[in-house]
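Researcher: Here's the sequence for the chain we discussed earlier.
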Amino acid sequence: MSTWAVAACAAGGAGAVLRYAIDATVKARVRTDLPIATIAINVVGSALLGFFTGLVTFGAPGTLTLVLGTGFCGGFTTFSTASFETVALARRGEHVLALVTAAGTWIAALAACGVGFAVSWFLVGR
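Model: Thanks. This is the structure I predict for it:
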């Protein structure tokens, strides 16, 4: 296994641990049916991925995307948990919250990715 692959694995582990810590902290402090911790994690992770991808687009080594994009962001964000939480809301009859969670997360994550990319352009691409 290459050094970069090992680094991506380590970064993925770090992302997963950070996701768990944030999720547990938010759930302990905020009581709501809306899965705000998962939504926030996925939006922040999308912004980071957009930023890292932009850095590579504008000249940073491609290994940055491998380690921080695939590794860290892949371990940090969680499509499967977002899907499960959305289905759980729908099964409980919270159809509006399920729709807000699904559509809102998707729209916010796309926008955040674009903002992350734009920030990288502003910092290094101009």
